[in-house]
Amino acid sequence: MSLSLYDVSIPVYQRMLGNLASFLDKAEAHAKAGGPGLETLAEAKLIDDMASFTRQIQLASDAAKGGAARFAQQEAPSMPDTETTFAELRERIAKTQAFLASIKREDVDGGEGRTIELKLPNRTMTFTGTEFLTGFSLPNFLFHVTTAYAILRAQGVPLGKMDFLAGGQALAA
Amino acid sequence: MSLSLYDVSIPVYQRMLGNLASFLDKAEAHAKAGGPGLETLAEAKLIDDMASFTRQIQLASDAAKGGAARFAQQEAPSMPDTETTFAELRERIAKTQAFLASIKREDVDGGEGRTIELKLPNRTMTFTGTEFLTGFSLPNFLFHVTTAYAILRAQGVPLGKMDFLAGGQALAA
Questions:
Q1: N or C: which end of chain A has fewer CB within 10 A?
Q2: A74: domain CATH number?
Q3: What's the domain range around B145?
């Protein structure tokens, strides 16, 4: 048995985006039960100069599809960040999941030493596949999923750590 | 070239704990410049029923040393969660880093199919090494580092995403 680059990347994006979608379910149930309304939650932030709940989901989507595209040497589908409602956020997650489901294991595996370039506004970062995964993509992706969770928690939505880790729980026997 | 279980686990804990220590530096500088005092920050939470900044650091430490110990089939050093000051939080991170530095690559690599059991109060979760890494250890560890960051940000400490990803940035050419 050997470690597969696919196994430590694509399924992590998939599982955690699934959990992110389940946060939306709990937020909706909480809104119906008298908690903050969905418009309030969509725009909620931890502090004024941090990104909103909606933006955290867009950034988690970008991290997942951008990471998967780089590992598979493909173009990520463009998604123009126009979401404002929970229905549109669900659709954004679903479109991201559809792209992830299209990624072939054989296009990712073996890419641990492949050069990955990340063009930022003021410079280009160059990584190996392993470095990009561990030093950029997973921390950045999980940052946005965690911050989305934290924003809902700070608004009183009843989420627990096992909602965050749910896919991992299902994985385990 | 093949993917190494060591490379996708131990250095992630090490780099992100280093970044966590740098959040403490920025929080101290901000306190000196008139921001919230260190006692306030140590006890700060996003909402009453979430863990404090101090507790997030203890939990990040537990996730890192517990994960490393399971991958290397060792006992993690016990750390009794008595920290209350920034100096003690720094020491906690340093002790965790010392344990991580003692983990040998050859004790981790090849463990992707090894069974890892996680005993919880009410049940035992069973994973392969890969499943434990991707479905539990990394998401859980990065959850606590991100939440520590979020608590400081919500208190006005001037941190940015590149503080969170700093080690990844240094990795890249």
A1: C
A2: 1.20.120.450
A3: 10-166
